[in-house]
Write a structure and sequence with these properties.
Elements lengths: L5 H5 L6 H25 L2 H8 L3 H29 L1 H15 L9 H33 L4 H22 L5 H25 L38 H36 L4 H20 L1 H8 L1 H21 L3 H15 L2 H42 L2 H21 L7
């Protein structure tokens, strides 16, 4: 296994060929994750028909992905510390690619839930492992490039959903998802050797920055370094509290993502009388805005810092979701969806990156578990609130949690920057 030279990588600014290859490989795994997950999502209606599951039975079966993912995330942090984030990423890429072929082989909701548990294990594992690998690389590059990896996830998701839409009427779910297995294994075989060959880089402690940095770029916090890197660690109790708070910010962000994915189109169609095509375009606009926000996230972080990015983004998301949920005009609601996407875009990657800088793979695992828990609770929470009140009122909870994220981000601005 090649070991990147600390002296070279700490000050190279990402110019070395090894760092470039490593960044490309990690980016590919982020895109693959989004691609495979979106490919599964677009075939859920067909799988429902195939299994003959009722809406409630399908809902319980779908919890398999979330349960498998959340349980695995904490275990993956330990695996990354023992075996390294790179081999775990590759192994989870193989598992995820194989597991995507299983759902169309089932013929009952119970069996579907069982195979989705396996799929959730691969999904949760790769999310923690590849984020841990990305955190290590960001720390060495000393540039806040974490959003670019999550932009690849968004792009992969859009490609996966687009391909699924194109082939849905021509290929059965079995053939389509088996095709995704082949694509996933080929991509893993192409990008995996780079991760297996190059160990996670460990930067040298910068001489002039051992007392901590101010939050100007959001690139790294030298006094709270990730696992395996040099530098002094913050007190364990303080780090644990900060990681939990960062996880809550991630939860607030992913709650909004999940809510718009599950309920956005229904709101536009049911409450604003949009056509099915326009209603579907609403989520596409939201997803596109998130991708654009993440592609420009590095520049934003370098200019205003991570605290301003989180607080400003959460505030924008709160305003945008109030428009999206309560506006009486369709075009205003669509604009609100776009603003929400821009606002939420960089919150999750920034908070996961900060948690990793504070506590290594364990921090990534803890914050990711809380973060993805937002998607787990979002779907039923919005549904119950919509029954008790109305769907527009229920969607304002996205704005409320975005405001909570802004408050936590502002309240922890000094603690996470030192």
């Amino acid at each position: 296994m090649n070991k990147l030279s600390p002296a070279r990588t700490a000050h190279s600014g990402g110019s070395s060929p090894e760092l470039t290859r490593l960044r490309v490989a990690i980016t590919v795994f982020f895109a693959l994750d989004g691609f495979i997950f979106a490919g599964w999502v677009v075939r859920i209606p067909a799988i429902k028909d195939q299994t003959g599951a009722s809406a409630s039975a399908l809902g319980l079966a779908l919890l398999g992905v979330s349960v498998g993912g959340v349980v695995t995330m904490m275990l993956t942090g330990r695996l990354c510390r023992r075996f390294g984030s790179h081999p775990v990423t590759v192994a989870c890429g193989v598992l995820l690619s194989l597991a995507i072929a299983l759902p169309p082989l089932t013929h009952s909701a119970l069996a579907l839930g069982g195979v989705l548990l396996v799929f959730g294990v691969g999904y949760g594992g790769i999310n923690v492992a590849m984020n841990s690998a990305a955190v290590d690389l960001v720390h060495v590059l000393r540039r806040p490039v974490m959003p670019s990896f999550h932009a690849a996830f968004s792009l992969g998701g859009m490609l996966g959903a687009g391909l699924g839409g194109l082939v849905a009427s021509h290929l059965s779910p079995t053939k389509h998802l088996l095709m995704l297995t082949v694509i996933g294994l080929v991509v893993t075989a192409a990008a995996g050797p780079t991760l297996l060959r190059i160990e996670p880089p460990t930067p040298r402690e910068p001489e002039a920055e051992t007392t901590g940095s101010t939050d100007t770029t959001g690139a790294a916090e030298p006094t709270a370094t990730p696992s395996g890197s040099g530098g002094r660690a913050a007190p364990a109790r303080k780090v644990g509290v900060l990681v939990i708070l960062l996880g809550l910010v991630a939860l607030c962000s992913s709650y909004g993502e999940g809510a718009l994915a599950d309920w956005g189109a229904l709101h536009l169609h049911q409450d604003l009388h949009a056509s099915p095509g326009t209603a579907a375009a609403g989520y596409t606009l939201f997803a596109l805005s998130m991708m654009v926000g993440r592609l420009t996230g590095t520049t934003l972080l370098e200019r205003v810092g991570s605290t301003a990015t989180v607080v400003g983004g959460a505030s924008l998301a709160a305003f945008g979701m109030l428009l999206g949920a309560l506006a009486p005009a369709l075009w205003v609601a669509l604009a609100g969806f776009a603003l929400t996407g821009l606002g939420l875009a960089n919150i999750f990657p920034v908070t996961i990156g900060r948690a990793g800088a504070l506590s290594g793979p364990g921090g990534v695992a803890a914050a990711s578990t809380l973060g993805y828990g937002g998607m787990l609770i979002g779907q039923p929470a919005i549904g119950f609130m919509a029954d008790w009140l109305t769907l527009p009122s229920a969607l304002t909870s996205v704005a409320l949690l975005a405001a909570v994220a802004a408050a936590i981000g502002y309240g922890t601005r000094r603690a996470t920057a030192s």
